Amino acid sequence: MSRFITPAITRAMSELHTWGGLVFGWLLFAIFLTGTLSIFEPELTHWMQPNLRSVQAEPVQAIATADQKLRLLDPQADIWMIAMPQKRHQDLEIMWKKGKVTLEKHVDPQSGAIMKAYDTEGGHFFADFHYQLHSGKTGLWLVSLASVVMLVTLVSGIAIRRQVFKEFFRLRWRLNCLNAHTMTGVLTLPFVFLITYTGLTITFFMILPTVPKVLYGNTWHGPHTVASQNFDRPRANLPGEMVPLSELLPRAEKELGKGNISFIRITNPNDRHAVVTFFRTVDDTIVAMSA
User: Fold this and answer.
1) For a designed S-S bond to 95, which of 46, 81, 113, 226 qualifies (C-beta 3.0 to 4.6 A apart)?
2) What is the mean pLDDT of residues 175-180?
3) 240 φ, ψ (degrees, to nearest 5)
4) Which residues in 95-120 are b (16+ Cβ under 10 Å) and which e?
5) Region 122-132: what's the mean pLDDT?
6) In 10 A of CB 4, how many CB atoms?
């Protein structure tokens, strides 16, 4: 392979590696830093909202309280959503969507009282910066561009410093700044490459919505719907009596595990075509599951 890499190509790759790192290095540092902090998003939010720390309740009591509150607040909403208390966040949150408007409230799982939350983004501040720089679609494109540049600098760095890999595994390490940079790059190369590549795959359907539209006949939500095998159907516009969610919870826990329900979504509530979807917590698994 070395015979195909001429000195001219090596110089070009060196320039690409240097300038790509200089221009996007600081932005990538901020993205990686906020990505690390985003791992603790629920804990940071919980820490910044101490007034939401209520006495713990059993899941069946929490879901019954949320169900009763949603029926009272907006029985004709398009979608109801319930975020169940978990180990990483102990508050019970209810959300409902009517048209393009989404409202949310924090509820005491025992008394059903509405709890006032502090006006803070908490850990979501870091998560939002991590993938879109608080700039919406423009920020998402910038992060994606920085990720592509990161992959290019990784490949060009490998090409211009091929000899380093031999020296690394032969333990021929030299103590200077350039080799310190190279050795740390070699040590972290698998992690940095995978974290950058997987980040690009996550944003791929967001920045190129035409692809999932062609493949799934939908926006980027199409692949998610297929992967999670969610069932959905349009509103029938005929009144229907909903089964209490507390009666459905044992059936969901039988499939997904007792105490593992983290989120419930009710589409077309109080309609004959209402659909209730239970989502499993993903803190202990790689793959999200729903029933």
Assistant:
1) 81
2) 66
3) -145, 145
4) bbbeeeeeeebbbbbeeeeebebeee
5) 89
6) 6
Task: Please check whether residue 149 is in contact with residue 93, taking contact to mean a CB–CB distance below 8 angstroms.
Answer: no
Phi and psi at 192, nearest 5°, equal -65, -40
**Distances, alpha carbon 121 to alpha carbons 45, 51, 154, 290, in Å:** 7, 15, 34, 27
Task: Measure the CA–CA gap between 21 and 98, rounded to whole angstroms.
Answer: 46
The torsion angles phi and psi of 289, rounded to 5 degrees, stand at -130, 150
Angle at the Cα of 214 from the Cα atoms of 208 and 220, rounded to 5 degrees: 45
Question: pLDDT per residue over 92-122, tens digit each?
Answer: 899 999 888 899 888 888 888 888 877 788 8
What is the arithmetic mean of pLDDT over 262-284?
87
Neighbours of 261 (CB within 10 A): 24
In angstroms, what CA-CA distances link 85 with 29, 61, 81, 82, 124?
33, 11, 13, 10, 17
The token pair at 48 is: 């910044």
Cα 235 to Cα 237: distance, rounded to the nearest angstrom? 6
Tell whether the model's pLDDT for residue 179 goes beyond 70. no
pLDDT band at 239 (very low <50, low <70, confident <90, very high): confident
Largest CA distance in the chain: 76
Per-residue confidence band for 159, with pLDDT thresholds at 50, 70 and 90: confident
Task: Quote the Cα angle for 173-179-183, to 5°.
Answer: 75
Supply φ then ψ for residue 21, to 5 degrees: -70, -40
Q: How far apart are CA 46 and CA 128, in angstroms?
A: 17
Q: Write down the residue that tokens 């561009």 correspond to.
A: 145
pTM of the model: 0.71
- pLDDT tens digits, one per residue of 8-36: 777 877 788 888 888 898 999 999 999 99
